[in-house]
Amino acid sequence: MPWQRPSTSSAARRPPLLAEMMHQSCGMQPPTIREALARARAKLSSRTSEALLEAEVLLAHVLGQTRAYLYTHPERRLTNTEWRAYEEILHQRVAGQPVAYLLRHREFYGLDFIVDPRVLIPRPETELLVERVLVLTQKDPPAAARWLLADVGTGSGAIAISIAVHRPRALIYAIDLWAAALDVAALNAQRHGVSERVVLLHGDLLEPLPEPVHLVLANLPYLGDESWAALPEEIAQHEPRSALYGGPEGLDLYRRLLLQAPGHLLPHGHLLLEIDPQQALPLKALAAQVFGPPVKTFTWPDLAGHDRVLEIEVP
Questions:
Q1: In the prediction, which pLDDT does 19 show?
Q2: CB within 10 Å: which end of the chain, N or C, has fewer?
Q3: Are 223 and 234 a contacting pair, CB within 8 Å?
Q4: Rounded-to-5 percentages of helix, strand, coil across the chain
Q5: Which residues is 213 bridged to in the sheet?
Q6: Beta strands 213-218 and 147-152: pairing type?
Q7: Residue 142, pLDDT score
Q8: Pairing state between β 213-218 and 198-202
Q9: Taken in order 62, 65, 67, 73, is the CA torsion positive or negative?
Protein backbone atom coordinates (compact mmCIF):
# COMPACT_ATOMS: atom_id res chain seq x y z
CA MET A 1 0.00 0.00 0.00
CA PRO A 2 1.62 3.32 -1.02
CA TRP A 3 2.20 5.70 1.85
CA GLN A 4 1.01 9.26 1.71
CA ARG A 5 1.72 12.00 4.22
CA PRO A 6 -1.47 12.81 6.14
CA SER A 7 -3.26 15.81 4.70
CA THR A 8 -3.26 19.05 6.60
CA SER A 9 -6.13 21.47 6.82
CA SER A 10 -5.98 24.90 5.26
CA ALA A 11 -5.78 26.35 8.78
CA ALA A 12 -2.70 24.28 9.48
CA ARG A 13 -1.08 25.63 6.32
CA ARG A 14 -1.57 29.30 7.26
CA PRO A 15 1.58 31.16 8.30
CA PRO A 16 1.81 31.13 12.11
CA LEU A 17 1.99 34.93 12.30
CA LEU A 18 -1.24 35.30 10.32
CA ALA A 19 -3.01 32.79 12.56
CA GLU A 20 -1.80 34.64 15.65
CA MET A 21 -3.18 37.93 14.28
CA MET A 22 -6.53 36.31 13.48
CA HIS A 23 -6.88 34.95 17.01
CA GLN A 24 -5.90 38.28 18.56
CA SER A 25 -8.29 40.27 16.39
CA CYS A 26 -11.17 37.97 17.34
CA GLY A 27 -10.25 37.98 21.02
CA MET A 28 -9.75 34.21 20.95
CA GLN A 29 -7.18 32.24 22.93
CA PRO A 30 -6.09 28.64 22.57
CA PRO A 31 -7.28 26.48 25.47
CA THR A 32 -5.29 25.33 28.45
CA ILE A 33 -4.23 21.69 28.67
CA ARG A 34 -7.20 20.96 30.96
CA GLU A 35 -9.62 22.64 28.59
CA ALA A 36 -8.12 20.98 25.52
CA LEU A 37 -8.48 17.54 27.10
CA ALA A 38 -12.11 18.20 28.02
CA ARG A 39 -12.94 19.27 24.45
CA ALA A 40 -11.05 16.33 22.98
CA ARG A 41 -12.78 13.85 25.26
CA ALA A 42 -16.19 15.11 24.15
CA LYS A 43 -15.16 14.95 20.51
CA LEU A 44 -13.67 11.44 20.73
CA SER A 45 -16.53 9.89 22.73
CA SER A 46 -18.35 9.08 19.49
CA ARG A 47 -15.34 7.10 18.21
CA THR A 48 -13.96 5.23 21.22
CA SER A 49 -14.80 4.04 24.72
CA GLU A 50 -11.35 5.25 25.81
CA ALA A 51 -11.88 8.87 24.83
CA LEU A 52 -9.96 10.42 27.73
CA LEU A 53 -6.99 8.08 27.39
CA GLU A 54 -6.73 8.75 23.66
CA ALA A 55 -7.13 12.49 24.22
CA GLU A 56 -4.19 12.38 26.63
CA VAL A 57 -2.00 10.22 24.42
CA LEU A 58 -2.58 12.40 21.37
CA LEU A 59 -2.02 15.68 23.23
CA ALA A 60 1.17 14.37 24.82
CA HIS A 61 2.33 13.41 21.33
CA VAL A 62 1.59 16.87 19.92
CA LEU A 63 3.39 18.57 22.81
CA GLY A 64 6.32 16.15 22.81
CA GLN A 65 5.69 15.45 26.49
CA THR A 66 4.54 12.57 28.71
CA ARG A 67 0.97 12.06 29.90
CA ALA A 68 2.17 12.88 33.42
CA TYR A 69 3.19 16.33 32.17
CA LEU A 70 -0.43 17.07 31.24
CA TYR A 71 -1.52 16.65 34.86
CA THR A 72 1.34 18.58 36.38
CA HIS A 73 0.74 21.54 34.02
CA PRO A 74 -3.06 21.64 33.56
CA GLU A 75 -3.22 25.46 33.31
CA ARG A 76 -0.46 25.70 30.71
CA ARG A 77 -2.02 27.35 27.67
CA LEU A 78 -1.35 25.80 24.28
CA THR A 79 0.21 27.91 21.57
CA ASN A 80 -1.82 28.50 18.43
CA THR A 81 0.45 26.10 16.53
CA GLU A 82 -0.03 23.36 19.14
CA TRP A 83 -3.79 23.83 19.23
CA ARG A 84 -4.08 23.67 15.44
CA ALA A 85 -1.97 20.50 15.38
CA TYR A 86 -4.10 18.94 18.12
CA GLU A 87 -7.34 19.83 16.35
CA GLU A 88 -6.02 18.26 13.15
CA ILE A 89 -4.95 15.01 14.79
CA LEU A 90 -8.31 14.80 16.62
CA HIS A 91 -10.10 15.29 13.32
CA GLN A 92 -8.16 12.40 11.80
CA ARG A 93 -8.92 10.19 14.81
CA VAL A 94 -12.65 10.94 14.67
CA ALA A 95 -12.50 10.05 10.96
CA GLY A 96 -11.24 6.61 11.95
CA GLN A 97 -7.46 6.78 11.67
CA PRO A 98 -5.96 4.30 14.19
CA VAL A 99 -4.07 5.88 17.07
CA ALA A 100 -0.90 3.94 16.20
CA TYR A 101 -0.81 5.48 12.72
CA LEU A 102 -1.31 8.97 14.15
CA LEU A 103 1.50 8.45 16.67
CA ARG A 104 3.65 6.67 14.06
CA HIS A 105 4.71 3.99 16.54
CA ARG A 106 3.43 0.97 18.51
CA GLU A 107 4.90 -1.09 21.34
CA PHE A 108 5.34 -4.82 20.73
CA TYR A 109 7.06 -7.32 23.03
CA GLY A 110 8.50 -4.48 25.09
CA LEU A 111 10.02 -2.72 22.07
CA ASP A 112 8.90 0.40 20.24
CA PHE A 113 8.24 0.04 16.49
CA ILE A 114 7.63 2.55 13.75
CA VAL A 115 4.29 1.89 12.05
CA ASP A 116 2.32 3.71 9.38
CA PRO A 117 -0.37 2.80 6.81
CA ARG A 118 2.15 0.75 4.82
CA VAL A 119 2.05 -1.99 7.46
CA LEU A 120 -0.35 -3.80 9.77
CA ILE A 121 -0.36 -2.56 13.36
CA PRO A 122 1.26 -5.25 15.58
CA ARG A 123 -1.22 -6.96 17.94
CA PRO A 124 -0.58 -8.19 21.50
CA GLU A 125 -1.76 -11.72 20.61
CA THR A 126 1.08 -12.01 18.09
CA GLU A 127 3.54 -11.83 20.98
CA LEU A 128 2.66 -15.49 21.63
CA LEU A 129 4.39 -16.36 18.36
CA VAL A 130 7.57 -14.67 19.58
CA GLU A 131 7.35 -16.44 22.93
CA ARG A 132 7.11 -19.88 21.30
CA VAL A 133 10.12 -19.16 19.09
CA LEU A 134 12.16 -18.06 22.10
CA VAL A 135 11.26 -21.31 23.88
CA LEU A 136 12.33 -23.41 20.89
CA THR A 137 15.61 -21.54 20.54
CA GLN A 138 16.69 -21.64 24.18
CA LYS A 139 19.32 -24.33 23.48
CA ASP A 140 22.11 -24.25 20.92
CA PRO A 141 20.96 -24.87 17.35
CA PRO A 142 21.36 -28.48 16.11
CA ALA A 143 24.56 -28.95 14.07
CA ALA A 144 24.85 -25.23 13.30
CA ALA A 145 26.66 -22.18 14.61
CA ARG A 146 23.44 -20.19 14.82
CA TRP A 147 19.71 -20.50 14.51
CA LEU A 148 18.30 -19.84 11.04
CA LEU A 149 14.75 -18.52 10.89
CA ALA A 150 12.35 -17.19 8.27
CA ASP A 151 9.66 -14.65 9.18
CA VAL A 152 7.18 -14.76 6.31
CA GLY A 153 5.04 -11.66 5.79
CA THR A 154 7.22 -9.60 8.10
CA GLY A 155 5.41 -6.26 7.66
CA SER A 156 6.88 -3.81 10.17
CA GLY A 157 9.45 -6.44 11.16
CA ALA A 158 8.13 -6.57 14.73
CA ILE A 159 8.32 -10.38 15.03
CA ALA A 160 11.73 -10.84 13.41
CA ILE A 161 13.32 -7.90 15.24
CA SER A 162 11.91 -8.93 18.64
CA ILE A 163 13.45 -12.38 18.20
CA ALA A 164 16.76 -10.95 17.00
CA VAL A 165 16.98 -8.68 20.05
CA HIS A 166 16.47 -11.64 22.40
CA ARG A 167 18.46 -14.22 20.42
CA PRO A 168 21.87 -12.80 19.42
CA ARG A 169 22.79 -16.15 17.83
CA ALA A 170 19.87 -16.07 15.38
CA LEU A 171 19.89 -15.02 11.73
CA ILE A 172 16.41 -14.15 10.55
CA TYR A 173 15.27 -13.81 6.97
CA ALA A 174 12.37 -11.34 7.01
CA ILE A 175 10.30 -11.76 3.84
CA ASP A 176 7.49 -9.66 2.44
CA LEU A 177 5.76 -9.35 -0.91
CA TRP A 178 5.38 -5.60 -0.50
CA ALA A 179 8.49 -3.45 -0.88
CA ALA A 180 6.84 -0.57 1.01
CA ALA A 181 6.48 -2.79 4.08
CA LEU A 182 10.15 -3.76 3.88
CA ASP A 183 11.05 -0.07 3.96
CA VAL A 184 9.35 0.19 7.36
CA ALA A 185 11.00 -3.04 8.56
CA ALA A 186 14.41 -1.64 7.55
CA LEU A 187 13.84 1.46 9.69
CA ASN A 188 12.87 -0.69 12.67
CA ALA A 189 15.82 -3.07 12.27
CA GLN A 190 18.19 -0.11 12.20
CA ARG A 191 16.45 1.45 15.18
CA HIS A 192 17.02 -1.66 17.30
CA GLY A 193 20.53 -2.38 16.07
CA VAL A 194 19.82 -5.73 14.40
CA SER A 195 20.15 -4.87 10.71
CA GLU A 196 23.05 -7.30 10.28
CA ARG A 197 21.02 -10.24 11.61
CA VAL A 198 17.61 -9.42 10.14
CA VAL A 199 18.00 -9.94 6.39
CA LEU A 200 15.15 -8.36 4.43
CA LEU A 201 13.99 -10.29 1.35
CA HIS A 202 11.45 -9.15 -1.22
CA GLY A 203 9.30 -11.91 -2.66
CA ASP A 204 6.44 -14.37 -2.38
CA LEU A 205 6.32 -16.53 0.76
CA LEU A 206 9.42 -18.79 0.98
CA GLU A 207 10.59 -18.34 -2.61
CA PRO A 208 13.35 -15.76 -1.82
CA LEU A 209 14.98 -17.91 0.90
CA PRO A 210 18.66 -18.51 0.05
CA GLU A 211 19.02 -21.55 2.34
CA PRO A 212 16.95 -23.97 4.46
CA VAL A 213 16.08 -22.81 7.98
CA HIS A 214 15.34 -24.35 11.37
CA LEU A 215 12.10 -22.43 11.92
CA VAL A 216 9.53 -20.86 9.65
CA LEU A 217 7.20 -18.45 11.39
CA ALA A 218 4.37 -16.53 9.83
CA ASN A 219 1.58 -14.15 10.69
CA LEU A 220 0.02 -14.14 7.25
CA PRO A 221 -3.38 -12.72 6.30
CA TYR A 222 -5.88 -15.23 7.70
CA LEU A 223 -9.24 -13.43 7.75
CA GLY A 224 -11.93 -15.07 5.61
CA ASP A 225 -15.09 -13.54 4.21
CA GLU A 226 -17.06 -13.92 7.44
CA SER A 227 -14.34 -12.43 9.63
CA TRP A 228 -13.69 -9.62 7.18
CA ALA A 229 -17.37 -8.64 7.16
CA ALA A 230 -17.31 -8.43 10.97
CA LEU A 231 -14.20 -6.23 11.16
CA PRO A 232 -14.52 -2.82 12.82
CA GLU A 233 -14.59 0.00 10.29
CA GLU A 234 -11.39 1.44 11.73
CA ILE A 235 -9.45 -1.70 10.74
CA ALA A 236 -11.18 -2.51 7.46
CA GLN A 237 -10.86 1.01 6.05
CA HIS A 238 -7.45 2.06 7.33
CA GLU A 239 -5.17 -0.96 7.72
CA PRO A 240 -3.84 -2.68 4.57
CA ARG A 241 -6.30 -5.29 3.31
CA SER A 242 -3.37 -7.20 1.80
CA ALA A 243 -2.12 -7.86 5.35
CA LEU A 244 -5.48 -9.09 6.64
CA TYR A 245 -7.60 -10.90 4.04
CA GLY A 246 -6.59 -14.46 3.25
CA GLY A 247 -9.26 -15.55 0.78
CA PRO A 248 -12.81 -16.87 1.32
CA GLU A 249 -11.75 -19.19 4.16
CA GLY A 250 -8.69 -17.18 5.16
CA LEU A 251 -6.39 -20.10 4.28
CA ASP A 252 -5.14 -19.27 0.78
CA LEU A 253 -1.65 -18.18 1.81
CA TYR A 254 -1.20 -20.76 4.55
CA ARG A 255 -2.03 -23.58 2.15
CA ARG A 256 0.62 -22.32 -0.25
CA LEU A 257 3.13 -21.85 2.56
CA LEU A 258 2.74 -25.44 3.80
CA LEU A 259 3.17 -26.80 0.30
CA GLN A 260 6.40 -24.80 -0.10
CA ALA A 261 7.79 -25.62 3.36
CA PRO A 262 9.34 -29.11 2.81
CA GLY A 263 12.01 -27.73 0.49
CA HIS A 264 12.95 -24.93 2.87
CA LEU A 265 13.14 -26.61 6.28
CA LEU A 266 16.15 -28.31 7.85
CA PRO A 267 15.62 -31.74 9.48
CA HIS A 268 13.54 -31.54 12.67
CA GLY A 269 12.41 -28.07 11.68
CA HIS A 270 9.33 -26.27 12.96
CA LEU A 271 6.62 -24.07 11.53
CA LEU A 272 4.80 -21.63 13.79
CA LEU A 273 1.70 -19.95 12.37
CA GLU A 274 -0.63 -17.38 13.86
CA ILE A 275 -4.15 -18.52 12.98
CA ASP A 276 -7.84 -18.05 13.56
CA PRO A 277 -8.94 -20.70 16.10
CA GLN A 278 -11.29 -22.29 13.54
CA GLN A 279 -8.39 -22.91 11.16
CA ALA A 280 -6.45 -25.29 13.43
CA LEU A 281 -8.12 -28.51 12.27
CA PRO A 282 -7.91 -27.96 8.48
CA LEU A 283 -4.26 -26.82 8.77
CA LYS A 284 -3.35 -29.83 10.91
CA ALA A 285 -4.92 -32.10 8.28
CA LEU A 286 -2.98 -30.37 5.51
CA ALA A 287 0.27 -30.65 7.49
CA ALA A 288 -0.28 -34.42 7.79
CA GLN A 289 -0.73 -34.65 4.01
CA VAL A 290 2.35 -32.57 3.25
CA PHE A 291 4.79 -34.01 5.80
CA GLY A 292 3.32 -37.47 6.39
CA PRO A 293 1.54 -39.05 9.37
CA PRO A 294 4.52 -38.81 11.81
CA VAL A 295 4.20 -35.00 11.81
CA LYS A 296 3.42 -33.51 15.22
CA THR A 297 1.13 -30.52 15.66
CA PHE A 298 0.34 -28.41 18.71
CA THR A 299 -1.88 -25.40 19.31
CA TRP A 300 -1.11 -22.68 21.82
CA PRO A 301 -3.85 -20.43 23.26
CA ASP A 302 -3.70 -16.66 23.59
CA LEU A 303 -4.61 -14.82 26.79
CA ALA A 304 -8.31 -15.08 25.91
CA GLY A 305 -8.02 -18.88 25.73
CA HIS A 306 -8.38 -19.10 21.94
CA ASP A 307 -6.04 -21.28 19.89
CA ARG A 308 -3.79 -18.66 18.31
CA VAL A 309 -0.53 -20.33 17.29
CA LEU A 310 -0.25 -23.60 15.40
CA GLU A 311 3.11 -25.34 15.82
CA ILE A 312 4.11 -28.03 13.32
CA GLU A 313 7.12 -30.21 14.12
CA VAL A 314 8.50 -31.78 10.97
CA PRO A 315 9.68 -35.43 11.21
A1: 43
A2: C
A3: no
A4: 45, 20, 35
A5: 265
A6: parallel
A7: 75
A8: unpaired
A9: negative
Q: What b/e string do you get for 99-132 counting C-beta neighbours within 10 Å, with b at 16 or more? A: bbbbeebbebbebebbbbbbbbbbeebbbbbbeb
- Residue 83 CA to residue 252 CA, distance in Å, equals 47
Q: What is the DSSP letter of 43?
A: H
For the chain, percent of residues with pLDDT exceeding 90:
86
Domains, the chain = 10-95 (1.10.8.10), 105-313 (3.40.50.150)
Q: Is 191 exposed, middle or buried (0-12, 13-18, 19+ CB in 10 A)?
A: middle
pLDDT of residue 20 exceeding 90:
no
Nearest CA to 147 out of 114, 172, 129 is that of 172
Q: What does the pLDDT read at residue 71? A: 96
Lowest mean pLDDT among 24-33, 39-48, 56-65, 168-177: 24-33
- Span 269-283, average pLDDT: 96
| Partners of 311 in the β-ladder | 272, 298
State the Cα–Cα distance between residues 97 and 95, nearest whole angstrom: 6
Total residues found in the chain within this entry: 315
DSSP label of 126 = G
In the DSSP assignment, the letter for residue 104 is T
pTM attached to this predicted model: 0.87
**What angle in degrees, to the nearest 10, is found between the helix axes of 16-25 and 80-94?**
100
pLDDT tens for residues 162-215? 999 999 999 999 999 999 999 999 999 999 999 999 999 999 999 999 999 999
